[in-house]
């Protein structure tokens, strides 16, 4: 299946030289010399080993970030220069886009072609969008009414200042893009960063580190520590010199990070799990809705925080829409993401594959009917795209995040019922409504408890639109102006003049 699929020479040489961690402007092994293997999920083979950071390595990285923030040219840099540097970084990503896409492919399992036009292009676009913010961070002047000192004149203003050293911890489903979602606003506002990529997917983050240095950022502005969540991630989230934590990952780990942050009142934003509904109203075009619902769940092999993993279809279209999604799923080509004709790659790991099969098995035991999929494929960590019907709204398949290509589908009869079902979840990240009735869409939007609502599309993200969750899906927002707010502190100044 994979013999004829070759990598670019620059990707091969990157993998061959045993990537190290970026601390300050030096590429280092872990002080202990410990390493961990990085695998290709399409075949389970080891691609390379990376350093496995201990607490002391994280400490070194945070110290480098602290120095960069407190003492260096970075803290004195003007907004225009921060803008130009970010733009330069985006240009370098563009130059190396094909290689970055290949790294995402071999390390995550996703299609290189899709990674080029989605993950890498969105990262470039996002950095350029954030470059624009560097020169637009504003405060305000305020006329105050302070009762003391009646004869005084006051000049009062509000400043926004960079929050400081940012500890960023990300998941494996969009390794480069999630890193850029943290890095962009941090570099636009003048923060410094220590990034801990996911255990499974450190490669594009290390390449990003190379590009940050090449762009000309001062030493320590961006540091990358590779290692496990329980050691390196925990050390970063408890570090007293970190001023802000920004996390993308599971709700379970997000709660740990939130608690660690509260101990020291470290600023924190959390982008967590989801169980997002796709809602097909009675007036929708069932073909359009079926194609949209299939993409909503199967894109990135279902490993998308806002994947449309719960499908609610008006009863009159239910059988048709489910049947069409099953046909789309059955026709999908699974395989190695280096093959441009492949439509779905493997899941990230054997553990994730077993977890997903565990849910499918549980569904069977609980009486669900499998409309398609439910099986393994190939030697890698593949799960065939799966649709389950006859599932209980209160059961685990509908309430828990599976994080794989598994859709649960249920019929409904009226709008009030589907709003109640859609909101009957601990999560609230995204939702899509499929309809040709503008007024029905507008009336539903305020009733849906989620951070994003899409109409006749799903997971439609843009750098200018804030993204984040209601309920257990998180705290704070990424992207848009909201991101700048989360990377700055507000300082009120009152001058008696
Ligand atoms: P995860 O929570 O297991 O791991 C995420 C990161 O946290 C990794 O870097 C990991 O090493 C680190 N980590 C693990 N334990 C830690 C600890 N005790 N202390 C500090 N760090 C620790 O999540 P995952 O399995 O990598 O990713 C899947 C999850 O991410 C899903 O729930 C998905 O919905 C979520 N996600 C959310 C968004 C969003 O924007 N809302 C985006 C992508 C993924």
Automatic annotation (TrEMBL):
Active site (UniProt): 271
Keyword Oxidoreductase set for record: yes
Molecular functions per Gene Ontology: aldehyde dehydrogenase (NAD+) activity
Key words, A-Z: Oxidoreductase
Aldehyde dehydrogenase domain segment(s): 27-493
Enzyme Commission identifier(s): 1.2.1.3
Catalytic class of the enzyme: oxidoreductase
SUPFAM superfamilies membership: ALDH-like
InterPro entries in UniProt: Ald_DH/histidinol_DH, Ald_DH_C, Ald_DH_CS_CYS, Ald_DH_CS_GLU, Ald_DH_N, Aldehyde_DH_dom
Pfam family, any one: Aldedh
Family label: Belongs to the aldehyde dehydrogenase family.
Protein name in the entry: Aldehyde dehydrogenase (NAD(+))
Source species: Pseudogulbenkiania ferrooxidans 2002
